[in-house]
Amino acid sequence: MARIEDVAARAGVSAGTVSNVLNRPQAVSPKTLERVRAAIAELGYLPNESARALVAGRTRTVGLIVPDVTNPFFADLANGAEEVADTHDVIVMLYNSAESTDRELRYLGQLETQRVQGVLVTPVDLGGGNVLALIERGTPVVLLDRGTGLRDLCSVAVDDRAGGRLAATHLVEHGHRRVAFIGGPLAVPQVRERLDGAREMVDAAGGILEVIEVPGLTVGAGRSVAAALAERPPGERPTAVLCANDLIALGVLQAATRAGLRVPGDLAIVGYDDIEFAAAAAVPLTSVRQPRHQLGRVAADLLFEEINDGKRHSHRQVVFQPELVVRASTGVQRG
Amino acid sequence: MARIEDVAARAGVSAGTVSNVLNRPQAVSPKTLERVRAAIAELGYLPNESARALVAGRTRTVGLIVPDVTNPFFADLANGAEEVADTHDVIVMLYNSAESTDRELRYLGQLETQRVQGVLVTPVDLGGGNVLALIERGTPVVLLDRGTGLRDLCSVAVDDRAGGRLAATHLVEHGHRRVAFIGGPLAVPQVRERLDGAREMVDAAGGILEVIEVPGLTVGAGRSVAAALAERPPGERPTAVLCANDLIALGVLQAATRAGLRVPGDLAIVGYDDIEFAAAAAVPLTSVRQPRHQLGRVAADLLFEEINDGKRHSHRQVVFQPELVVRASTGVQRG
DNA sequence: GAAGCCGGTTATAACGATTCAGCAACCGAC
DNA sequence: GTCGGTTGCTGAATCGTTATAACCGGCTTC
Question: B5-62 pLDDT, tens per residue?
Fold first, then answer.
């Protein structure tokens, strides 16, 4: 593969000039510029990034570690981050930790030996143990959607409590007074916050919020809860459920329909995340949407700010507001 | 950040010895080994990959470009590839082309300037135009799940025709003689092959296969087809549908149930891909499963074979056999 | 006692780019 | 015709690592 010297020889100039053509073309005369460019094209020359990184002391890459690539939330977020990185001439390396601390640790290590400029990461363990070591050794890090508790770090997140309030307010305004919150484990901050927000509004309306904790945010969990709810006499059943994510909501929808409950007539449903399937469900789902793409963009902005400002950078925590998308599963005004 | 010289100074040896500790510890005396390792730990030294790559003339990375990271098929495939890469001490860089030729081209370019050892890619355009340039300049490439037409390349894929046969045979054995195939665009080789396989078996059984082409493999497409089918008088309606993927199948399931058709009583449904939602659907879906993980592993194996064998490597096309997962949507034996 | 060997170590030369001081050629101005 | 000032290019040093040849006591071996 052609090196810069080969190009230089072919164009009859020195290597330094070729480098100038590549990096500061305005410092080269039009005539040689053309000659060198021709040589580059003829040889199919591509600069060696390793050599560049070595002399520059930094690579042109940042890392992005998400807990689940198959979740559209993170795919959109990744796109947003990439757009911003692009404007900085930086490549985003994407990794899927799959919620595994081990994988996260491995990837962080890889990114560090690769000397990436910075890392965007949704930490698996909320204390951010793996991440702290990186930071101490000087790699800029921005936290995504989790671990906002860590004050001396940049982070972006969505206000889950506000999301809970949004969903609950919507139900209350539709006349619901018996509402169930389905989600879990409650130890997950995201779930907890959504619950707290919901409780706040239901309480304020003088309603009753029943909390049904489930082991995971899955379709299966939603189905078994709905099956149990359907068994109750109508008077002891909530008229609406607020689910911690759309998967649970879809499960509830399936099992409830199956058991003969009509949605939203007998049971209104609100989901969370607004995944693609939410709109495509048998009864399109009302859901809380998060500004995913924007989240990625701002996270990347913060990261580059930190990279460029160096020591005199002050960390910021950005919190986005979610938005309610109303569809058929909560029906029309009631009561 | 600490360099190898810093470690050497601290341990009272030369840089060469530190390098030996890292790369050929058996060539170093136990005493100095220990001293050097201690120094490494104390300084938190991490070798600079750019420098390593520069002298080695090759990086320790390969690229993986998939058309849709959110599709579990590719996520599993990526995991398989990564496992293999791990045993070669190589990092997998993951990219999402999102079916965009532009993005694919950009990523391929990035990978090439990064001097990756090789690339695994599901080409967006089936001719593989973008990919050919890479290959000509000497980067080993293995094609994933597409573009198997290109003979002088390594590739892995799943036998879609066999998948179609598998699904159709299952329906025929359950007594179905009026079957509809729903999928499209038919120009997509995957879809076409599945259809051909299905036709083969339905024809052999003396049945009738109706082809319903849809613009895309989406839930919405499935729903509108099912709505139309439900309008027909029972005698003119197929008793079973074979869908080109699970999303269509889920759409059909929803709309059919909605219209009062019972699944599988009035309409049996077979999907394709066996995505997670298939098992979690209102009526769990019979579907054709592909050995996704294995696909990734073998693709990576082929790539490393090519990387290590160099010129005297002969390209291979590996084709996997799919597997039918029977669930409730095709019910019990009929007729 | 000289020659050869051996494990363990060091010094040195790459790898492919960028940067920067320095130099030649040319410019208009006096 | 000489002088400062550009402009455009070259040559050398440099980044952090690995590979390799050379070295060096200490030990056999004849």
Answer: 999 999 999 999 999 999 999 999 999 999 999 999 999 999 999 999 999 999 999 9
The protein residue nearest C15 (Cα–C1') is B55
Contact B91 A110 (CB under 8 A): yes
- The verdict on residue B335 lying in a domain is no
Taking CB atoms and an 8 Å limit, are A281 and B254 in contact across chains? yes
B139–A contact, CB cutoff 8 A: no
What confidence tier does B150 reach under pLDDT thresholds 50, 70, 90?
Answer: low
pLDDT tens string B66-85 = 988 888 889 999 999 999 99
pLDDT at A329 over 90: yes
The answer on B123 and B146 residing in a single domain is: yes
For the record, the structure tokens of B144 come out as 């994933």
Would you tell me how many other CB atoms lie within 10 Å of the CB of residue A256? 24
Q: Which residues contact A213 (CB under 8 A, 6 or more apart)?
A: A183, A184, A185, A186
Each residue of A15-28: pLDDT tens digit?
A: 999 999 999 999 99
Calpha distance A183→A288 (Å, rounded) = 15
CA B14 to C1' C10, in angstroms, rounded, equals 6
Separation of alpha carbons B251 and B257, rounded Å:
10
pLDDT tens digits, B182-241: 998 998 888 999 999 999 999 999 999 999 999 988 888 999 999 999 999 999 999 999
Is A328 in the B-facing interface, judged by CB distances under 8 Å? no
Partner-chain residue, chosen from B75, B281, B282, that has the shortest CB–CB distance to A70:
B75
pTM of the model: 0.87
The whole domain housing A17 covers 4-56
On whether the CB atoms of residues B61 and B114 are closer than 8 A, the answer is yes
Q: Does residue B115 sit at the A interface (CB-CB below 8 Å)?
A: yes
Q: In terms of domains, do B111 and B69 share one?
A: yes
State the angle between helix axes of B160-173 and B189-204 in degrees (0 to 180), rounded to the nearest 10. 30
d(CA B257, CA B273): 22
| Residue closest to B261 by CA, chosen among B250, B252, B248, B249 | B252
CATH value at residue A26: 1.10.260.40
B272 contacts B171 by C-beta, under 8 angstroms: no
Q: What is the mean pLDDT of chain A?
A: 92
Q: From CA A31, how far away is CA A53, in angstroms rounded?
A: 29
Q: How far apart are CA A330 and CA B185, in angstroms?
A: 35
Q: Nearest CA to A35 among A49, A43, A46?
A: A43
Residue A130's pLDDT is what?
85
The number of distinct structural domains making up chain A is: 3
